Amino acid sequence: MQLPSGFVDELRGRISLAQIAGRRVTWDPRKSNAARGDWWAPCPFHQEKTASFHVDDAKGFYYCFGCHAKGDVLDFVRETENVGFMEAVERLAGDAGMQMPAADPVAAARAAANTGLVEAMEAAVRFYRAQLTGSRAAAARAYLERRGLGAETIESFEIGYAPDGRTVLIEHLTAKGFDLAKLVEAGLAGKPGQGSPYDRFRNRITFPIRDARGRAIAFGARAIAPGQEPKYLNSPETPLFDKSRTLYNAGPAGAAARKAGTVIVTEGYMDVIALARAGVTHAVAPLGTAITDRQLEALWKIAPEPVVALDGDTAGLNAAHRLVDLALPHLGAGRSLRFALLPAGQDPDDVVRAGGRAAIEAILADSKPVIDLLWGREVDGQVLDSPERRAALDARLRAHVSRISDATLRAHWEAEVRVRRAALFAPPQKSRPERAFERPFERPFSPGPKRSRRALPVRESFAPATASTRSSLLAQAGEGVFADDRVRESAILAGCLNHPDVAIRLESRLERLACRCRNLEEIRRALLSALADAPDNADRATFVAAVSLRLSRDPGPELSLGQIRSNPHLAPTASPEQAARAIEEELDRHAALAGRAAELIEAAADFAAGPDDGLTERVRAAAEAEHATYIRPLADDGTDTGLERPEFLSVIQASEALLARKPRRR
């Protein structure tokens, strides 16, 4: 049975030799390096105790340094399973999920017709290389010299010259016995309809393109005459050459990449050569088109995290964004990308000429992960000053993250996006003079006899209190943290712990919440930290465990107040809608009380600085409103103590006393 052209090559590309060989051997963990595709084991073909059997997974070849067995994945299956070539293909096709083609006489005839294409390509390589030294290649040599390409680089990359004649190559190869039809099929010659054939490459510098097996399959060619278009010309699609799957310099770069730990992706083959001149030999390039999903797969066979080097201008960024969109569904452990953006208007050759290898390595070392590119595209330059715009951003980010098929990676992306979003929308720190007590806390609470008041508060502020504020009657009266504060804040936190899905929805409000009770503020911060790593469908037990880990204690006992235990809307059995309403009501009440307290503090500070009749009335009115609104303090068992909150009464009394002493204005 004849297989269609390219079937076996595609099969080799889909199958990992290390995975197939791993069924027969035990890899030596001391010598093997999975990240680089470098595997060592005792040889399956002869008896030994040392690991002399080597698999180069990127190239798809094995070699034993003991018995000298060597080959590719098909050879390995044939030798270890004692089967013929076609049966080995069938078994590997099953592993790769490829359908074996039916017997096709047309395909068999086509396979026979392809015989000799590689030989014609290799003959063309030799011919073009010889032409570069001739008199007609003076302009080509001058161009290469201007680009800094010396004899060693020209030899290494097999650079040649296609003479400026219509049929120079055709005449040379047909004289050596190659059929004209083969030259046309290989892409070396063109034949328009019934017209006469012609050399495809004329008056151009040629760059052979080889596949991972080292076979010459195509050419890239650079124009050297002024006005000659196109500047870069590649071979057409042929039975040997599929542009969407091929990477320039893939073979040599694979070996260098295993030492470097990564592979660099540039825009073209001149960039690859420029980097090689600087000693950076692990670079590849697509061939005149954007990177395809097949090329991504080829890159990940070389290295788990290729670095894509692109121009830092608009075109380069657009290319990076297109690649991000292409790569998202394929990302996973050992399958990622990084992006190194070059200075605008410069290619790798410009960077190397200006700063040498150190300059390009500094840019590569500063490469950014995929999420940085995506986040920058969605956030940079955006005005997010309304809930609607922020909701639109959330929708776009969710849509991007949902395209990641790897569930574990998707969860990590969700957590990272949540952290970045929290930082983006975090309220700015306030720094206003004479505005103390912005974020109040109490001393750590310790149980004791039943009483209405907890420990006296320790107040923290973002701005130091002024002398006038410190001497105000409000500050002298003192402010306490009462049971109603603790009940309200505990209700919010307990509800969020019992319903992490609701906490995720209310995350922005929890970020703005400032707990008056110090230990509850610690729980709030731990809860927000756990939310940053929690997936959207986090279960309660896992979430509570994550909060406890960050606190180094179980928050449950501190939140287990009678009023909360008896509230069915905050219990784990409540519906998300019930819990959301209950938590939002407590958040609304907390915000309203905090706002009135802030007004009272501001009024008191103004009063201390220079009270008049209006300010005195303002202080008294604010204190009376606060006193009327606040729940009276509760005892430890949740019962009403009947006591009044004395700080507000003292403000009322102090303001009336001052009003009585202050002379009236005339």
From TrEMBL:
Cofactor-binding details, from the entry: Binds 1 zinc ion per monomer.
Any GO BP: DNA replication, synthesis of primer
Record's subunit section: Monomer. Interacts with DnaB.
Enzyme class: transferase
Catalytic activity: ssDNA + n NTP = ssDNA/pppN(pN)n-1 hybrid + (n-1) diphosphate
Chain intervals annotated as zinc finger (CHC2-type): 43-67
Cofactor: Zn(2+)
InterPro entries according to UniProt: DNA_primase_core_N_sf, DNA_primase_DnaG, DNA_primase_Znf_CHC2, DnaG_bac, DNAG_N, DnaG_primase, TOPRIM_DnaG_bac, TOPRIM_dom
Sorted UniProt keywords: DNA replication, DNA-binding, DNA-directed RNA polymerase, Magnesium, Metal-binding, Nucleotidyltransferase, Primosome, Transcription, Transferase, Zinc, Zinc-finger
Domain remarks in the Swiss-Prot or TrEMBL record: Contains an N-terminal zinc-binding domain, a central core domain that contains the primase activity, and a C-terminal DnaB-binding domain.
Gene: dnaG
SUPFAM superfamilies named among the record's database cross-references: DNA primase core (SSF56731), Zinc beta-ribbon (SSF57783)
Family from the record: Belongs to the DnaG primase family.
Name of the protein described by the UniProt record: DNA primase
Sequence ranges assigned to domain Toprim in this UniProt record: 261-343
EC number from the UniProt entry: 2.7.7.101
Pfam families (alphabetical): DNAG_N, Toprim_2, Zn_ribbon_DnaG
GO CC, alphabetical: cytoplasm; DNA-directed RNA polymerase complex; primosome complex
A Gene Ontology molecular function term of the record: DNA binding
Role played: RNA polymerase that catalyzes the synthesis of short RNA molecules used as primers for DNA polymerase during DNA replication.
